[in-house]
Amino acid sequence: MSCQAHFYDRRASAYARKFLFDEAIECHSAACQELEKSYKLTSNSKAVESIKLQHEYHKKQKDFLRLKKLQYHTYKEALRVQKEAMSRIMKARGARENESENDSQGATLKKAIFRTIEEADSLLELLVQRDDEDGSSVKQENCLSNKETSNVSSGSKRPKDDTTVIEELKIVNYQLRYVLTVGFLDII
C-alpha cells in the first residue's frame, strides 16, 4: 500500500513543477488515502509512526499547494494587469508627437550609456588595481616563452593579456564619452 503512496507523491511533485496544482493536490489526497489503508493493516509501532508522519506530510503538502496555487494565480493576474498597463502606456506614447518622443528617448539613451560607461570605468579600475597588486607575476604568466611560441601553429592567435584588455576598454570608453559630449545623440 505504501508503494502507491510514494507513486502518488512523485506524481504530485511532477504536477507541481508543471503548475498543475489541482492535480497535485488530488495526488496528495490519494496518497493520504493509501496511507490510511496501510495504517489500518499495520500493527508495528514504528511502521505506524512512520505512516502517521507520512500522512501529516501529505496533508501539509496539500495546504502548501493550495497556497502556491493562490500565489501563482495572483502572480499571473498581476502580469496580465501589468501587460495591459504597458500596452496603454505604449498607446499613449504613440499618440504623442514623434519629436517629443525622440527627445525623451534620446535623453534616456544618453543616461543609459553614461551609466554603462561608469560601470565599465569601475570595472576597469578594479582590473587596474588587481593588475597593480599582482605586479609583474601576472605579466610573466600571460607571456608565452620562446619554446611555447615555436609550438603554436602559424594560424593561431595569441590570447590578450589583462593590460591589453584594460587599454582597449579605456579607449572604447573614451570614444563613447567623446561621442556623447560632442552631441551626436542630440540628433536622435
Percent in helix = over 70%
Q: Class of the largest domain in CATH?
A: Mainly Alpha
- Overall, the morphology is elongated
Structural class: mainly alpha
Q: What is the CATH third-level topology name of the largest domain?
A: Methane Monooxygenase Hydroxylase, Chain G, domain 1
How would you describe what is shown here?
The chain is mostly helical. The protein has two domains: 2-93, Phosphotransferase system, lactose/cellobiose-type IIA subunit (Methane Monooxygenase Hydroxylase, Chain G, domain 1, Up-down Bundle); 97-187, no CATH class. It is 85% helix and 0% strand. The chain contains seven helices and no strands. The chain has helices at 2-17, 21-41, 45-95, 98-134, 136-142, 146-151, 162-182. The radius of gyration is 32 Å and the shape is elongated. The termini are far apart. The model is unreliable at 136-152 (pLDDT under 50). It holds the Pfam family NRBF2_MIT. Residues 137-160 are annotated as: Disordered. InterPro entries: NRBF2, NRBF2_MIT.
